[in-house]
Structures are given as C-alpha cells and as structure tokens.
Amino acid sequence: MLKISALNQFYGSSHTLRDVSLNVAEGACTVVLGRNGVGKTTLLKCLVGLLPVKGGEIELAGQPLTRTPSHRRVLAGLGYVPQGREIFPQLSVEENLRIGAYAGERNQTAKGKQFSFDDVFHTFPVLKTMRRRIAGNLSGGQQQQLAIGRALLTNPKLLILDEPTEGIQPSIVMEIEAVIRSLKGSLSILLVEQFFDFAQAVADDYVVLVRGQVVSAGRGDQMEANNVRALISV
Ligand SMILES: Nc1ncnc2c1ncn2[C@@H]1O[C@H](COP(=O)(O)OP(=O)(O)OP(=O)(O)O)[C@@H](O)[C@H]1O
Ligand SMILES: [Mg+2]
C-alpha cells in the first residue's frame, strides 16, 4: 500500500533522514521504532508533505506522492494523527470531527473503508458522550482518541500515527491498541512508537531508526529475536 524508497531529508546542513526505505502492506501495520530525536516525526512529516525531501520516492497504492501538496495527499488517502494530537482546542469534539469528515466527503472516490460519525462513536464511545464539550478540556487520552477519530473520518487508505501512547493513561493505551488491531484489514497503518510491548502487539512489520537510518527491519514476530528492545531502550 505504501512504499517509501531511499528518502533523504536535511534541516539546513543537518542530514536528518538517510536513505530511509520502508513498506506498509495492504491491511497491515508497520511500526517505526527509535529513541528520541532519531527522525521519526521528520519521516512522517515528509510522508504527509509538511516537509520537503531532498531525494527519494513516496508511493501510495501505486500513486506517486513525492511532490504532491499536503492537502492532496489527504485526498489520496493519507490520514495523519500528529504527535501531540493537534486537535483544535477551542472547538467542540463534534466540530473537530466535522473537519475530518469535510475531507472525507471529498474523498469518496478513495477505495478504502468509509467511516461515519456513528462508526467513530462506536469505536470511541467517550467521544459521543462528550460531543458538545470543548476539545481542549478533554484528557490527553480522550484528545488522542479524538485525533484518531478525526483522521478516520477522512476515509484514509493509510492511517499514520505518531506516538499515540505518549503521556496517556494505561487504560486508554489498551483501548487504542484494540482499535488498531480492529482497524487492520480494512485499512493500512503506519505507527511510530517507542514502547516495545505496544509496538510488538500491533506490528506486522517493523523498522528501527538510529540517527535517521534504518538499522533493523523485519516481521513483527522477529522483534524480540532481533534485539529491537536494546536498539530503542535508553
Ligand atoms: N524544525 C527543525 N529544524 C531543525 N532541526 C530539527 C527540526 N525538527 C527536528 N529537528 C531535529 O531533527 C532530529 C529528528 O527530530 P524528530 O522530531 O524527527 O525526532 P523523533 O524521532 O520524532 O523524536 P521524538 O521521539 O522525541 O518525537 C532531531 O535531532 C531534532 O532536534
Ligand atoms: Mg517525534
């Protein structure tokens, strides 16, 4: 579904991504692991078009996206849940979701699963209970669920999640894990994660970044044997 080939990116003279290649198979989840500052978020920003790349190719379902503007990548089927969630804190839960749905309505030619408000409320019941609340007043975990719901309403072919468990209470981490498992099959997922156990629980495939380079890659069930724990522990 997603093919990233030999991606290179610089911040000024600092070479942040070095020949990064990875794939996400259709209906599967690839996890990107790595310590703080190795370039995980930079990789996702290049993927969604928020940062330009110096070289390399990005292809979604056979469609080249490397030079496509960001809003068109959303319409092509990239659903992005940024690190720190970036919901609109002054708007209500429902208004945040409507922003996702607005892109989703224009996205109905995409072949992926189509998500309705009811689907999102079924997945995250708390969002239904809190639909009129101001989003900024939700807990961190609830805001994460809202950000995922908003991304699902864009009807993505590929859901992209940047450290969804960061700073979130364990019960909601478990809910998010269950949601990722249940979404697999109907869409493809690229997950950035630093928690080994969470990553292993959802990964079909994995890559580990160290200083902007892929140093280990394989099937999710090889993570333990390939000593991924040591590569990401601090
Ligand atoms: N806008 C920027 N300008 C210059 N350097 C940056 C910028 N954003 C990030 N960097 C640097 O690029 C490197 C990669 O940062 P990035 O945010 O991609 O890491 P990360 O793996 O997502 O880290 P974390 O796990 O802490 O979120 C870091 O050394 C960071 O300091
Ligand atoms: Mg990051």
UniProtKB/TrEMBL annotation:
<dbReference type="GO" id="GO:0015807">
    <property type="term" value="P:L-amino acid transport"/>
</dbReference>
<dbReference type="InterPro" id="IPR052156">
    <property type="entry name" value="BCAA_Transport_ATP-bd_LivF"/>
</dbReference>
<keyword id="KW-0029">Amino-acid transport</keyword>
<dbReference type="Pfam" id="PF00005">
    <property type="entry name" value="ABC_tran"/>
</dbReference>
<dbReference type="InterPro" id="IPR017780">
    <property type="entry name" value="ABC_transptr_urea_ATP-bd_UrtE"/>
</dbReference>
<dbReference type="GO" id="GO:0005524">
    <property type="term" value="F:ATP binding"/>
</dbReference>
<protein>
    <submittedName>
        <fullName>Urea ABC transporter ATP-binding subunit UrtE</fullName>
    </submittedName>
</protein>
<keyword id="KW-0547">Nucleotide-binding</keyword>
<dbReference type="InterPro" id="IPR027417">
    <property type="entry name" value="P-loop_NTPase"/>
</dbReference>
<keyword id="KW-0067">ATP-binding</keyword>
<keyword id="KW-0813">Transport</keyword>
<keyword id="KW-0472">Membrane</keyword>
<keyword id="KW-1003">Cell membrane</keyword>
<comment type="similarity">
    <text>Belongs to the ABC transporter superfamily.</text>
</comment>
<dbReference type="GO" id="GO:0016887">
    <property type="term" value="F:ATP hydrolysis activity"/>
</dbReference>
<dbReference type="GO" id="GO:0015658">
    <property type="term" value="F:branched-chain amino acid transmembrane transporter activity"/>
</dbReference>
<dbReference type="InterPro" id="IPR003439">
    <property type="entry name" value="ABC_transporter-like_ATP-bd"/>
</dbReference>
<dbReference type="InterPro" id="IPR003593">
    <property type="entry name" value="AAA+_ATPase"/>
</dbReference>
<feature type="domain" description="ABC transporter">
    <location>
        <begin position="2"/>
        <end position="234"/>
    </location>
</feature>
<keyword id="KW-0997">Cell inner membrane</keyword>
